[in-house]
Amino acid sequence: MTTRDADVSDPTLAVDIQGQVAREVAADAGSPALAQNFTQRLLLEEVPCQEEPATHWVYGPTHTIDVAPGIGASWMGSYDGDLNTTGTAPRGKEPCGGIAILRNGSHYGVLEVDACLDTAAMTRIVRAAVTQL
Fold it and tell me: Strand 98-104 to strand 107-113: parallel, antiparallel, or no bridges (unpaired)?
């Protein structure tokens, strides 16, 4: 985590945005059922980004992590536009970070990873994040 500048209006952003490697926003929905509903809706908001015009950044396929009943996450890797030649994520290429939708009981959140992490590293980071949520 990087230090914050008191004048910045979005407290989830690093002072030096170029140095930000990840940001997480989380909340308590009040019940596990509402948290599940919110995570499903959040995921549906990101799914359209799996298909974008060629040369535009794109998310790859959805990966699901089930840690325990009521604790799980879905994440999609991010691919730069120069890798998107067909309108979808390239086959056989590793993502460079991505986005995860997390749920743990009544808590839910979004984790955006800007660091260039591959599938294995993203899976480990997302599993750790949802476990600690």
Answer: antiparallel
Q: Which of 27, 95, 24, 41 is nearest to 63 (CA)?
A: 95
Helices (H) and strands (E) in the chain, counts: 2, 5
Instruction: Please write the tens of the pLDDT for every residue from 36-94.
Output: 999 999 999 999 999 999 999 999 999 999 999 999 999 999 999 999 999 999 999 99
Contact 96, 78 (CB under 8 A): yes
Question: Strand (E) positions, 6-126?
Answer: 22-28, 58-68, 71-79, 98-104, 107-113
Residue (of 120, 89, 111, 132) closest to 21 by Cα position: 111
pLDDT in tens, 13-44: 656 656 667 888 999 999 999 999 999 999 99
- List the one residue out of 68, 131, 132, 64 whose CA is nearest residue 100: 64
